[in-house]
Amino acid sequence: EMSNGHGCCKSGPGYASPLEAMSGPRESLIYVTAVYAGTGIEKPDYLATVDVDPNSPTYSKVIHRLPVPYLGDELHHTGWNSCSSCHGDPSAERRFLIVPALVSGRVYVVDVKTNPRAPSLHKVVEPADIEQKTGLAYPHTSHCLASGDIMISCLGDKDGSAAGNGFLLLDSEFNVKGRWEKPGHSPLFGYDFWYQPRHNTMISTSWGAPSAFTKGFNLQHVSDGLYGRHLHVYSWPGGELRQTLDLGDSGLLPLEANVSISVKPLKVQNWILPEMPGLITDFLISLDDRFLYFVNWLHGDIRQYNIEDLKNPKLTGQVWVGGLLQKGSPIVAITDDGETWQPEVPEIQGKKLRGGPQMIQLSLDGKRLYATNSLFSTWDKQFYPDLVQKGSHILQIDVDTEKGGLKINPNFFVDFGAEPDGPSLAHEMRYPGGDCTSDIWV
C-alpha cells in the first residue's frame, strides 16, 4: 500500500516538497469541526465529513458525522499525528486527526485511515491528565513533529489565566509527555504557531486570556490588558523564547498577524463603534509561495494578493461573501466624502450568506479555496446572532492561479443550518491527504 496515496511505498506520509504536493491528487473529502457548544442546542460537537468530489452524487453534502462523547467541548482547530515533516520515515503514517476541544480542554484522537468516509474515535486525552502533568488548559493549535510527538498550543491554565499558557507535548501514542518550551520561556499570550526547522525558528501569535474571550468580546478587557498584541519568536527545537515583537495598538488582537498589508477600519453607522476593523481571522499562503489569502470576518470579504514581490504585495482578487455591511443590513460604511455604501453579497443556491468568512483552506493545486464562517460560539452569538440560529455554511471559491482572481462557485454550498440535530457552527477544515495549513517540511 502506498503510504501517501500516489508515491513510492518506501516514503513516509505527505510529500517530499511543497511543489510535489501541488501535483498530488485532488481533494475528494473534507473533515470539518462542527460545534453545538454555546449555541443552546444540548448536543455534542462532531467531526463532519463533507464530499467535495464534483463527480459524486453526494457532492457538497455532509456524508458522515462523528459526535464526541461529551457536551460543551467547542471543537476548534485540528492537526495530524504525522505529516510531511515525517516524509523520510517509512514507519510513520498519517492516520489520526488530533482534535483539541478549546473550552473543555479535552484532546480527541480520531482514526481517519480505517474508513476515511466514516472516521471513528480512537482515544480521548482527558483535561485532568493534561492539567496535572503540565498545568495547561484551553488547547488550540496542533502540529505533528518530525520526532513523532504532537505539539499543541494551550491558551491558559484551568482558571483561564493567560499567564498559565504554553505548549503541550503528546507522544506518538497520545500520552501526555510534558511541556515543549523551557521553564520560564512561556509566552505572555499564546494562540497559533508554526515551526520552520530550516531556520531553527518557531513563531507564535497572540489571542487573549480564556477568562476574557470565552465570555465574548468586551472592549474593557482590551483596556485591562487581557488581549495580546505580540509575536513570539522561539528557537527550534530548543524551546527558548528569543524575541517578542510588540505590534503596538494597531496590533491588538492579532488573531493572525500581518504587517505587510493593511486593512483600514471602515467608518460606519449603526454599529457598536464608529469604526469597524476587518478582523483578519485566518490567512494562508499557496504552496508555490505566489499568493496570500486572508479573510475579514467583520467586513465580509476574502482577499487574494500576489506576493511574488514580497515588499509590494498586489491585490489580485476580492469577493464579498457575508459580513456585517452587506446590503440589507442596518449597518452602513461611510466614505471620506460622507457617502454611504454596502457591498453586494450574492445568494448561493437561493441561500443568503450568513456571518463572515472565518477559516479558509486551499486545495493543493491552489485552484479551490474553501471558507467556513464560525469564529467561536460566544463571538458568533455576539456579532452574528443569525449564524447561531441558522447555522454555518461552507463556500468554495474558484481561483485564477495564472493572473489572479476569485470567483464564488455557485454549485457548492454546504448548509450546516440543515443538520439533523439543528443548526451547527462549522470551523476548521482538513483534507485526508494533508493540506497547505497543516503540513510542514523539514
Automatic annotation (TrEMBL):
Record-annotated membrane-spanning stretches: none
Keyword Cytoplasm recorded: no
Cross-referenced InterPro entries: Quino_amine_DH_bsu, Se-bd
One Gene Ontology molecular-function label: selenium binding
A Pfam family hit: SBP56
Keyword entries, A-Z: Selenium
Family from the record: Belongs to the selenium-binding protein family.
Protein's recorded name: Selenium-binding protein
